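Researcher: Let's try something more involved. This one mixes different molecule types, so please make sure each is placed in the same coordinate frame as the others.
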Amino acid sequence: MNRIPFNIRLVLPAQLTIMAIVVVPTVILLWLAHTDWQPTQNIPWFDAEFYWFWNFYDLWYDERFINSVFRTLFVVATCIAVELFLALGLALLFLDEWPWRKVAVSIIILPMMIIPVDAANAFFMLFNERGPINHLITVITGEVFEFSWLSHPTWAMVPIMLAEIWQWTPLMFLLVLTGLMNLPENQIRAAVGLGASPARIFFRVMLPLLVPVISIAVVIRAIETFKIFDPVYILTRGQPGGATETISMYMYNGAFVYFRMGYIAAAALLVLFVVVSVCLVLAKPLRKHG
Amino acid sequence: MSKKSIVTDRSRRKFMQSAAVGATAAVIAPSFIMSPRMANAATLGNVHIEAAKKAKELATGRNITLKVLQPSGSLGNVKPVADQFTALTGVAVEYLEVPLGEITQKILLEAVAKSGAFDLALPATFGMPDLVESGILVNLDQYASKYEPEGFQDDALFSTGDYYKGSLYGYQTDGDTYVMFYNKDWLENSDENKKFADKNGYELKVPDTWEELDAMMAHFHRPDKGMYGGALFRTQYFLAWEWWVRFHAKGFFPLDDNLNPQINNAAGVEALEEMVAASKHLYPGARTNGLFENFEAFGAGDKFCNIGWGGTQKFLNSDKSSIKGRMAFGPTPGGIVDGKLLRTPYFNWGWNYVVSSVSAEPEIAYLLTLYACSPAMSTVAVRDPDGYFDPFRGAHYEDDAIIKTYSPEFLEVHKASMEGSIPDLYLKGQGEYFDELRTNLGAADAETKTAKQALDDTAKSWERITRRMGKRSQGVQWSFLKSIYPSSIRNRLK
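Model: All components are placed in one shared frame. Result:
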């Protein structure tokens, strides 16, 4: 015991606890991913038959799984791009002091505080055939508009992404605003002194300095958006015909509706690999900044 | 010895003959038919009293509370019966409600957790095979042979879903066969009749075939005038059921004897193409509205037809509906096979009383099950205007309150459909088979896949599911299931 340094002895209990919390479920996940265990088999999970790599083989040919991964990546890319664009615009607007600025910030961040299921439900009502969106279009065009947004294979994804963007742009806004407020003023003053236009100052001075903050914001939001579930579940449940099925919806159905625990554990491992790869790419600019 | 009525036209001899067709079916089928039945004093008329007496005996000197896991909205059906059971036996009953579509999952979770969270449950009938395989349901054969009176199952018009691989696992408590609803005013309108007859060569009537129904929906669909062809479901949860009837009505089983899918044959593709074409003549909410929205939509009176169950009629025949008293009813349409009409009414939902294998009091729980499903007490349950259990026993169709709730015209059609219904795909993994089917039918309906592609993809997935579930084991149940299709239908299906 004396051979263990004092500082190690101090952190060991906490480290072991954390290891147990992380390692045990991971080992179970790895084991399940190599079995075809289902609770309906009436055997305990640890007695499940070893299935080698058949789950991964089946996933490779599972059109729904592959489609749901690519669909989720599309949602992530679209939502993050729109959120970042809106957040940058809003943050620039809120950079200077003006009356009621603090109140306006509080109002802007309100959606983030709403329970996601409630937010999704609001969008479900908005985009119903007889909902306010169709009513508004009817009023504007003067013709009865009863488009079924949530059951159209192409358009059903729009309300889902709008719900996500509406709710989480405020987080991106807060992160970007914090970054903007902490930019070194001397470089901006120098650019102003040299007669650079506001656009030039933004694109050549402020934006490069903001890259680390933006990278962090994008990685955080990408990880969160990849897990998108509430709006999909409430608005379409992945329908019509699987056209809005994201990876979380797919895994929810597999694990908690059809109890294919082994198969979905394998899917979870593959998804983890995809998410880590995507995040490494997104976080690449951070490495340049040490 | 009691004859089990797992086939409506099912004398024991007939059943044995059909079971003998497949050797596997012959092995499993007689296990319950031949089980020795202990003599008991119960008859169909007094089974509820005898069950309560026995439960009281078993509970004497103990404080027992049975917990019932039930689908939301069924309290009106369950509680009045359970209250009487409590009054007679002293056994208290607690209710745990879960959303309609999640009860099978909740019960399966209990198969893993084994927490004793409930003693009885009311899962959807189509979920029974998975529940049996999970080990969470008590095999009721031993209790049935002890307490079930002669003719108890014969009296139920549909009890196929109570059995799995030849053993009893629950009692049917809801007669959920598909029935058609029509706007009688439109159907009997002489101007409309003339226009329709001029175009189609036959008059408006309750349609015999899907082809006729589709033609009528197309005729009445005039959205610019606020008239719609139908309120048939196109939401994914319900979508597969209509196709299932359309497909069977073309004369095929969904699987062949070797469990190869037949759903993607020419008949299946044609059935799907016809269904997709019919979607154009439905009201705008057909693809998004759920069960209760569907009731309200048809209740508005601006649609020609709807498909549904007794629960639908309970709503439509109430003061909440503007079409009350102005409806005609019919069985689900059929198809012409070998020159003759083939109708395939479909029992696609329903609820069963089952007993949890983790229950500390399985025998008393069984007795409550028997009590609740007895002719006398199930009449009380079905009678309740706030619940959604529908008639499933002969006595229900003669009860004045039930006749008033549903109307005699509806009950006539309902009873005939119940007696000749085909079962759902009661195989292990039913949910997975149907999820693949639903998703692909949804894709075809949304026109992101052709009918052929959608069914080919489903067939491929079905083959994988069958392989995973074990072809041999699935084959045993499929042979059994085929043997209990009503013979009038079974003999005409390929």
